[in-house]
Records
---
Amino acid sequence: MEVSAKKRQAVEGKLAGKVALVTGAAQGIGEATARIVHHVTILDCSEKDWDTAWNVNIKIIFFLCKQAIPNMMANGGGSIINMSSVVSSIKGVANRYVYGTTNAAVIGLTKAIAVDFVDKNIRCNAICPRTIDTPSLQERMKAHSTSKKMEYETFIARQKMGGMGKPEEIASLCTFLASDEAAFITGKEYVIDGGWTL
């Protein structure tokens, strides 16, 4: 993602002196999460599928937050931004049983942390996107479709606003939630889905 110097300065200004933990970002956890979308119902879900999804989607966030919160408390506060999905407690989707279940758990974990540490100046929010046009999405479309164009058009057809979300749009929401502009916001899930859940 190419970022202009002017935009970079604006972002750095908003986040100057801030401590923010963003779980499930574009690499590492986020990359692993983006590639693990089991296409199963409860009847098709193996114990291995269940364990893998829980380890990647929720257990890693648990460990990261558990390590980060004491440091945030020692430094006077901070902001935790967890990546979930609209496929969660927000909306059920066919054949996304374990994916939806674990993303619902991310929202629950977010709210629990928010209420437990609100008096410590630690905010915790979740971002719940729908389809975001990322390299990992392109790889999944290529792996699961005989026609990349047809698969892309299928994804576009599901979006009420047309097109897919952009990583920059998620980054802008992360910047806002980590900044002082969001100082009075905690325990919320932010849907960024092009109107899909309307």
---
Amino acid sequence: MQPYQQLSSVFLCLLTWLHSNLAHTYVPLQSFTGRIGGGNYTYYKLLRNGNIQIQLRSLEGDADLYVSQTALHPTFELDNFDVHSVTCGDDIVDIPESYKRPVGIGIYGHPRYVQSIFECVISVAGADATLPPANSWTPPDAEVEEESIMWTIFVNVLKVVLDILV
């Protein structure tokens, strides 16, 4: 074998190794903790492009994860989510780059527990870590749907009042 053939073989092996390892390496973007009442949902919207991984760890109780590229409020109903993870431990869902954005993410508190406390980590594939967030390239005149903080507070207070009454 000629020296340049050996070098090209080594280079090809190195590129293959790098590609396979970068494709499965995730870089954390954001993490947060939250609480969810049994039988209730908390919803999030994912705007960022790229291959995304969501890790949901139930610290107390049991929180489950539902994801949809067509519904912003996915539920456990079979026709209302694309992927889900409903283990009693860590829930992990991979969202491919091909999913239409925004992606709806629902965290469901299992009704067996009065309350579930969870930690959620959003990570991006190593190869996609340099991509800008989706909203950084949105034209300035484009409409971006955002919920008012007052509306969110009102809905949460209403949920608490209903939970007390029921």
---
Amino acid sequence: MIKNFSVVVKIAIFLLTLQGMVCLRNVHLVVPESVERGSRVEMRCLYDLEQEVLYTVKWYRGDREFCRYSPRDVPPLKIFRIPGIDVDSLTAHRPAKGPKLPAQHRRDRLEFARNHCEWTLEQWRTVLFSDETRVCLFCNDRRRRVYRRQGERFTQPCFEESVEYGGGSCMFWGGISVDGKTELVCVSRTRGGRGQGSLNAGRYITEILEEHVVPYAGYEVDIPVMHWPARSPDLNPIEHLWDDLKRRVRARDPAPTTLQELQDAVLEEWEQIPQEAVATLREATDAQRLSIQAATRTANGRYTCEVSADAPSFQTAQVHAHMYVVDLPKSGPEMQGLNQYYRAGMKLKVECSSHNSLPAANLSFFINSEPAHKQHVWHRVSPANGSLWNAYSTIQFVVQKHHFIRGKMKIRCTANIYSIYLKSNEQCALEERLPTTPVSLPEINEVILYPIHRMADTADSADKIHGSLFFVLLIDIWYFTHLIDAN
């Protein structure tokens, strides 16, 4: 028994050690939970090979392979057609432009690629890619498109004005690495196409290397320089970041109108570019990204990404994710049955509906932004056109005084489908107040008081006093009698 237990322990230690030696790590599949039918879908299979070399990346829908990337094959990307899944592998694009390369330059580029194609991430981590770029104040990048009919080419909506020399420009220097980016430096500003303060060797050493590269790289002397083939700016990944930077500047509203505003905008946008955008420059390849042109209902289902390392390990890992292809309603939810006025004790009944979707939308009611009680709501669905569905939800309850806030009661119906669709319809009802009858006040009669004068203590005066008292008493009796009759 003890011997068997010892064997089990040794096997467990071996497996743990073997797991620590595995170099294929962090395999992760990024697939949208839901997409609208007919839309473009992008999937990503992320992984970390460390010191291994990639052998293949295979994509499956269900149990059927439909795409394979093998970097050693020519061409490296292979598509296995599945009806309804059209992988974006061959589409119309403008031809790429680049400098005309002599034979020697082509050989230098090939040698550079062979010397660095198997570099690990740790080796590339020590490289700082730097370059300069020019940003024009008014520049047409030829990416805008207009839709027009024949004969509308020069109409105002289809016409874009141009400015000579782009209205002036600014020249910037920057650098990026796997772990971050340097400060962006404005090295010159030009107006009318003529340079003012060109970047020469002396300025490059004092303003760029000494002030920015040395502090960033941590070197004091003897900064190692990578041999770079001539006329090969396209090999520098910072070119993609320059493109992203210029897109951000052109998207600003309002757009810069002076060179100073342009310089400030470029520096601000550079600081706002996240490090994730720099890190993904090395990942945006066919080995990790797959695009489906227009998702159909056939594309609905489970997807698998299988990554394999090359010899001698041939380690393989699989990850799975599910994607739903949905049909969204053409409009938001509709509400019927809500009256304009309610008062405490009245019954409220409202129906909400969402039409023509797949799957049927989930409907929820809210009263003054608070979820309605489940016992007050019931749901049903019914088939619509083709395979689409209609969703209905009804809420019914007795209105109470606390349902009114400042004399208003808000009823909202929300329709959602997964995380891709969320729309609401809110209506308001007022509190009905009963009219009040004014209460009449009792009639107020004036009391007349007569003064009583004391007389001398004689018989005649006593008779006068008794007569006066009797007269006042008769007046009081007459007054109270009429007061009682009036009430």
